[in-house]
Amino acid sequence: MTAAISADGIRKRYGDVQAVDGVSLTVETGEFHGILGPNGAGKTTTLEILEGIREPDEGRIELLGMAPWPRNAKLLPRIGVQFQASAFFVKLTARETIRTFASFYGVGPKRADAMLERVGLADSASVLTDKMSGGQAQRLSIACALAHDPELVFLDEPTTGLDPQARRNLWDLLRDINAEGRTVVLTTHYLDEAEVLCDRVSVMDHGKVLKTGAPAALVREIDDTVRVSVESGQLGVEAARELFAAAGAEIANLDDNGVSLAVSTRGPGPVLSVLAEQNALRGLEVRGATLEDVFLQLTGREYRA
Amino acid sequence: MSAPSTNTPSIEKERVSTFVSITRVMLTGFMRDRTALFFTLAMPLIFLLLFGVLTKNAGTSHVKIAEVGQVAVLDSMPGDSRTELEKAVTITKYDDESVALQKVKKGDLDGLVEQGPNGQVVLRFSMSDQVKAGAVQTIVNSVVQQANQAASGQQPKFTLAPSQVEDNSLKAIQYLTPGLLGYAVATGAVFGTSLTLVNWRKRRVLRRLRLAPVSIGSVVAARVAVSVVVAFVQTAIFLVVATMPFFGLKLTGNWWLVLPLVVCATIAFMSIGFLTGAIAKTEEAASGISQIILLPMSFLGGAFIPIDNAPHWLQTVSRALPMRYLVTSAQSVLSKGGGVMDVLPAMGGLLAFAALFTAISWRFFSWDDA
Ligand SMILES: Nc1ncnc2c1ncn2[C@@H]1O[C@H](COP(=O)(O)OP(=O)(O)O)[C@@H](O)[C@H]1O
Ligand SMILES: [Mg+2]
């Protein structure tokens, strides 16, 4: 099967900011691919370059076997795009909005209305888009991106700003979209979202893709690392480092963020006994690795959305 | 799921459906925007009504004079001549000269006539209103002439026909209608284009359109169509109001030529809106810049006041403004009997202006804020 997207060495600079710094990416047909990274990592810029609305300074991109830049009218009906911030006409209702977008692709009002119903907006069809809640606006954006039945769908942080219930509902919708055979590329700064939804994730920071793989595989690579944390203030970082070393514990990472002293280690036994000896077990937590640890290991710093 | 679609409709059909739906979007947006409705439809109409009422008698030669004591030429006029005269002049008898003179000075009366010694007719008038001062002199002069001729027993060569004076002068409504229509059309086209452009860019609609298989041509065509529809609605309202008996505009034969003229003017004004919309980042800025262009252009183009008497250099400036071509040509075809040749050159000029401004604007245009 040919790849839905293959990008090689994309770069984009804005003045002093190297927003995208040599991103290479392959997304297989039918894949649910996540681009995960904190704010400012370069996710949106990367996505815009892939979609073909921004010209890269460097790099080669193929979408469904075609170049997205310059604007390629053959490609456009086959892709669907949802922007990070909604793009609606002023003073139109939800129904008018989706019917308008659908008409650009020669899709009739019946299908447009069906799509509105599918994202759960049938009851809000007559609401002006300016008056819709964040969750409603996101769902309408997604419906507008899907009305013409695209093969490849780009979603830029679709769940940001939604309450937990709305997020979960949207996850169900996104899973269904992918299950229908569409390739989905989604950016997110939520680790749990990437873990739950994506077949593969590209972890991004400072304009670079640090690692790409299935969430489970990424975690498994650091699988034997266990994260132990206790309340701050019971043991200093330097003292702890010396004690752990003396006890022969292999430490991957050690830091204190003022709330907790956290240790990533392959040998939790000696670490735990040191903490017990020092009577520093208040607030003890021990857990296996997550994508957060993957990020931590890749960047050497805590993940902060 | 339905399989990802492979049957793309013909490009032609898609263009039409895009044109239709974008036109609908813009019209719907316009109809739901009270501010836009007010500034494009209500305010110009209010201007027309207001100016129309205020200037209802201006430009006509109806003057008021006082007859102090007995003035032979007036008193001895034959009945029908006197009736003719009173169509243009209201004559009030005064016994006290100083009272009448006071009224002339205050402008309540336009002049006074009294019998001087030796059969002289003395006319005293104020120069505060030059048009009326001129009219008073002309009328009194012709009355005296007529009386002289009658006295000399000759057949009068000229008879007083005040109605002719009235017809030849431009009635206020004859310049108010095309002028304020020009202002209305310019407001609609400049603001409509400029605000749509800024709003669509700011709200990322332009960028979303780029990701849809729509041609720029159909989007531009839709915007032109909507602006022309708005301009025609303005024209219809103006003509209906101005031709009401109260305002009394009389349309002449080729008045319909105003329609193609308005189309060309709309396109010219849209190119100004395109420029302000391409430069401005926010709606507020777009409104501000548009207004800064629109008001001086309206004054200099003769939309509010006739500029025939303006200094030469101002007239030269006005020749560079699309407003002038619209106003002058509309005036000509609406009520002064103008024909095709009075609008064709103007239409050409307006389209040339549009081409030039569109080319300039294109350099500033961007799809995106960033
Ligand atoms: N249009 C732009 N002009 C200048 N700088 C930009 C622009 N867009 C993004 N940036 C900068 O590029 C970097 C990456 O931004 P972005 O791609 O939006 O990241 P993300 O979507 O991951 O938050 C940020 O530092 C941002 O400030
Ligand atoms: Mg972003």
Largest sheet of chain B: 4 strands, mixed
Percent helix range of chain B: 55-70%
Helix content of chain A: 25-40%
Low-confidence stretches of chain A: none
Q: How many helices of chain A does DSSP assign?
A: 10
Return the structural class of chain A: alpha/beta
Number of strands of chain B: 4
Bound ions, cofactors and other small molecules, one mention each: adenosine-5'-diphosphate, magnesium ion
The main β sheet of chain A shows up as: 6 strands, mixed
Write the H/E string of chain A, N to C: EEEHEEHHHEHEHEEHEHEEHEH
Name the overall outline of chain A. Answer: elongated
CATH topology of the largest domain in chain A: Rossmann fold
Structural domain count of chain A? 2
Quaternary structure annotation: heterodimer
Count every beta strand of chain A, where a strand is a DSSP E run of 2 or more residues.
13
* Spatial sequence of strands, sheet with the most strands of chain B: 2-1-3-4
The most extensive contact between chains is: A-B, 34 and 35 residues
Integer average pLDDT of chain B? 85
Question: What is the CATH class designation of the largest domain in chain A?
Answer: Alpha Beta
The separation of the N and C termini of chain A measures 35 Å
Strand content of chain B: 5-15%
List keywords for this structure.
heterodimer; A: 305 residues; alpha/beta; Rossmann fold; Alpha-Beta Plaits; 6-stranded mixed sheet; B: 370 residues; mainly alpha; D-Maltodextrin-Binding Protein, domain 2; 2 domains; 4-stranded mixed sheet; 66% helix; elongated; binds adenosine-5'-diphosphate; binds magnesium ion
Describe what this molecule looks like in 3D:
In chain A, a hairpin with a 2-residue loop joins β8 and β9 (208-213). Chain A is elongated and about 70 Å long. Chain A folds into 2 domains: 5-220, Rossmann fold (3-Layer(aba) Sandwich), CATH 3.40.50.300; 225-288, THUMP domain-like (Alpha-Beta Plaits), CATH 3.30.70. The longest helix of chain A has 16 residues, at 164-179. In chain A, 33% of the residues lie in helices and 27% in strands. In chain A, the strands form 3 sheets. Chain A has a 6-stranded mixed β-sheet, with helices on both faces. Chain A has a 4-stranded antiparallel β-sheet with strand order 11-12-10-13, covered by helices on one side. In chain A, strands 2-1-4 form a 3-stranded antiparallel β-sheet, with helices on one face. With 305 residues, chain A is of the alpha/beta class. Chain B has 370 residues and is mainly alpha-helical. Chain B folds into 2 domains: 18-56 and 171-364, no CATH class; 63-143, D-Maltodextrin-Binding Protein, domain 2 (3-Layer(aba) Sandwich). In chain B, strands 2-1-3-4 form a 4-stranded mixed β-sheet. In chain B, a hairpin with a 5-residue loop joins β3 (111-115) and β4 (121-125). In chain B, α8 (172-202) runs parallel beside α11 (258-279) and α8 (172-202) crosses α14 (322-335). The longest helix of chain B is centred in the middle third of the chain and has 31 residues, at 172-202. The radius of gyration of chain B is 28 Å and the shape is elongated. The relative contact order of chain B is 0.11. Mean pLDDT of chain B is 85; it is low at 1-7 and 160-169. The structure holds adenosine-5'-diphosphate and magnesium ion. Adenosine-5'-diphosphate (ADP) binds at residues 14, 17, 19, 37, 39-45 of chain A.
